[in-house]
Specification:
15 helices, five-stranded mixed sheet, 398 residues, alpha/beta, globular
Length: 398
Amino acid sequence: MKPRILLLIGVLAAALGVFYLLAAPEAPRALTPEPESASAPLPSRRRVTDITFLYSTEKRAWVEAALADFQRTHPRVRVTLVGQGSLEAAQAILEGREKPTVWSPADSAELRMLAADWATDTSHGPLFATQGEAAPHPLVITPLVFVGWQDRMDVLRKADGGAALSWKTLQRAVASDRGWPAVGGPPEWGFVKLGHTDPTKSNSGLQALLSATLEYLGHRASVKQADLLDPGYQAWLQGLERGVTRFEPSTGTFMTDLVRYGPSRYDLALVYESLAIAQLGNAQGRWGPLRVDYPPVTLWSDHPAAVLQADWVTPEQREAALEWVAFLRSPAVQARALAFGFRPADPSVPLKTPDADNPFTRLAAQGIRVDVPPAADVPDASVLRTLLELWTRMGVGR
């Protein structure tokens, strides 16, 4: 029995010891730093930087393809894409509804107009840098073109003497109450249905007005305010705009609708060459062939990328934005723009290539050209605003 008693005493002693340890006050902890937890912030050099890229929607496919590659090689930068019509986006930035890190409208004209509006508030500094790597630089370029159904375009060219389509012949066809028979077309086509986007929201719509105006004036030089106040010109422009059945806010949406609904909605339209290239093949199995023609003077869209200097852009975001823009302007990404119908902005990237899929070779029979008519001078911001005001006063967009 004695060993059992000793064992029992040992067990009781151990239990009392555990009770004492649990009941004793906690000893002071040493003031040594604890190891960094997994949830603690990473050093700034490894932190992900979020930026917003506000861009014109017609380059959506190229931008999205480029971003997929960029995120794989630049995991430190997270880019949020926001697509919006150029003029609509400019107004949203001015009113504070959009606060992007980088803005890429379709054309530098929108940058100039927004910069002028931004400068009217003296509390603001310049919205964009004017020189150096942060200054706006073109990403891709594309001209404005006519695109229409082959049979309609043939009639209009014949009425023009067989030459390239002109605005004057188109205006005569659109403004006539006789419709297509006024230019030699069959009566079953009805009235001539012209298409372009809303010029108060989309750059291609504004370019369409400017292209028509330049041909009416008969020169490539900058339009003056006095030109727009001429009653003869205003009546001519209003007759032209009678044929526009609806005004979409986005050129990409508009071009898709042209192919989707065919000549029941649009006989021909003004779009970017890049969008025409993207959709020419889609029309074949629906309504027949589309044809591209180039206006007598060329208006380029240069798709500049501007890193904003607004107070909502941090230094880290600025550096991340410059990485993103540099990637878009790199030779490899510029060369890929050809597959999306754009002409590279980098002059070192060739437009003519031996690739059978190069659209500037593959679509030559449908009117796509490497060489284009001479470029027009783009007027200053005040003239463009007067042109938009004139269009609004006509009431054709309502």
